[in-house]
Amino acid sequence: MGVYWAIAVRSFRRFSTYRIATVSGVFTNSVFGFILCGVYLTLWRERPGLGGYDVPDALTFVWLQQGMLAPVGIFGATTTNELGERVRSGEIAVDLYRPTQLLLWWLSVDFGRAAFQLLARGGVPMVVGALVFDLKFPSSVWLWPVVVLGLVLGILVSFTIRYLVALSGFWITDSRGMEQLALVLSLFFAGTILPLVAFPGWIGVVARATPWAATMQVPIDIWLGRNPGGTGAALLFQVGWLLVLLLTAQLITTVATRKVVIHGG
Amino acid sequence: MVERVLRAPAQYWLLIVMWIRSVLAYPASFVLMLVGSTLVNLTDFVAVLIMFSHITAFGGFTFGEMALLYATSSLALGLADLITGSVERVGERIRTGAFDAYLIRPVPAFLQAAADGFALRRLGRPLQAGTVLVIALSKVDIDWTVARGIMFVVSVVTGAIIFGSLFVLGAAFQFVSIDSAELANSATYGGQALTQFPLTIFGKEIVRAVTFVVPLAFVNYYPVLFVLGKPAPLGLPSWIGLLSPLVAAAMVGLASLGWRAGLRRYRSTGS
Questions:
Q1: Interchain contact, A181 vs B36, CB within 8 Å
Q2: Cys-Cys crosslink for A91: which of A86, B52, B179, B248, Cβ 3.0 to 4.6 Å?
Q3: Which chain B residue lies closest to A168 (C-alpha atoms)?
């Protein structure tokens, strides 16, 4: 256990050295935040109460989302992209003869990254947004641990998806194509292009049932207190997907490491 | 100088052909990336479709008019991204010192940086934008005149040039602050996200900013207003869209100065 903690700590430190990248990321998140607020203000003015959100809900959604994009890794994350790169180049062989579990190793690496980005990038867009707009915050103190739990579960679900995508390289050599497809699904079903509550009819039902919903839409709804089945059901939904994905990831890891062929000699 | 400029297209072509060959070495992955890239861009437009399942007009624009704004903005960015988008990788080259290699080759460093890792999959965006454009033109009733036709075609080119200049300026800034690749995204991809909507919904200050500071409004908004025969905001003349070639020329000048200034500051890395 100690070794995984040590990996996570070092990964956290590694990402904390990219200071200018962090600042420019926060700036970009804020610019997009203002653009989306302009769009959502117009949309919710034309259709008040769309998807059960009022205007403060919609605007809070925007700023929470901008803070979560990097930690959750909606566009993919450096860590899992590196894993894919290692599978392609064959460097994965080095990872495989370490006396650690491949899945837990990369989980720790990704967790360190996510923890740094959550601390450094997560809150700032929310503060920027709150200076200009009237935003919503959890109504009582005991809700905060629940919000944090939802966020952590969202990050873990996102990690297992990205891990599976990177491992696809064991079969198709180059996982970048799969990364691109995973990006489409993640943009669409995590609620990045529009909150999932605004998706009409059966598309909305399908979107809300996917694991991507568990990465961003569900944690945001926990913050807003807008989960249709209540916060308990929302957490169960996240845990359910996490278990399914973790088991799949472990299974795929076993199969992949059995069939791996590393060139050279 | 003139000779160098004349040689540039052939040199650029040689470089990108090399990169295209390298990406085609993994055909399955390339097809997935092209499909993926088209779909990623399609999601933006799906957002517009979903919005119009709830409303009939957005900021005074009908669905067809919104599609026209979206298509022109996405087409301009897509072309700029295809041709110059790779230039943002320059920060990584500067950090690792690999930029040195550009300076000793007999091709301008700018061309090499712009062609670096040329991503053919970025054709996905222009392809998708072109499809939306056809849909848009079939939905909107435009009173076509020669002036409007010329304006429309020219605006796609000038829009791409404006976005391309922003990509180059962002890259030039990385000579000063390495690792700031994401900063330029707020002007380029952010600019596309902004200009796909009628700008007046963002308020007068934003319209002023994207007219006089970062001239994103000239990419497609003013030209489209001209083509649709809609009045311009802020009491500006309705023909203001006609100025977009001038704006594009000014941006190219600025980008060229920025790149040169950045290049002069370059110092290799190492200890």
A1: yes
A2: A86
A3: B29
d(CA A250, CA B5): 56
With H, G, I as helix, E, B as strand and everything else as coil, classify residue B58.
strand
* Phi then psi dihedrals of residue B58, to 5 deg: -125, 110
Q: Could you report the per-residue pLDDT of A154-181, keeping only the tens digit for each?
A: 999 999 999 999 998 888 777 777 888 8
- The first and second tokens of residue B57, run together, are 């007009």
List chain A residues with CB under 8 Å of B40: 180, 183-184, 187
Distance from CA of B34 to the nearest CA of A (A): 8
Which parts of chain B fold into alpha helices (H)?
2-23, 27-52, 63-84, 90-96, 100-104, 109-115, 124-139, 146-173, 181-187, 189-195, 204-208, 221-228, 244-265
Residues of chain B positioned with their CB less than 8 A from the CB of A175: 29
- Nearest CB partner across the interface for B177, out of A20, A35, A47: A20
**If contacts are CB pairs under 8 Å, which of residues 43-62 in chain A contact chain B?**
43, 46-47, 50
Find the CB nearest B54 among A50, A177, A183.
A50
User: ipTM of this predicted complex?
Assistant: 0.82
- What angle, rounded to 10 degrees, do the helices at A123-132 and A19-46 form? 40
Q: Which H helix or E strand runs over A240?
A: helix A231-259
Residue type, A39: V
Report chain B's C-alpha Rg in angstroms: 19
Q: Please, are residues B115 and B19 in contact by the beta-carbon 8 Å criterion?
A: yes
Interface test with B, best of A36, A180, A187, A206 (most B CBs within 10 A): A180
**Which residues have C-beta within 8 Å of that of residue B221, sequence separation ≥ 6?**
B69, B195, B198, B199, B210
- What pLDDT sits at residue B266? 84
Spatial neighbors of A265 by CB under 8 A, at least 6 apart, are none
| B152-173 pLDDT tens trace | 899 899 999 999 999 999 888 8
A25 shares contact with chain B (CB less than 8 Å): yes
Tell me if B183 and A28 make a contact (CB, 8 A cut-off): yes
What's phi and psi for B61, nearest 5 deg?
-110, 135
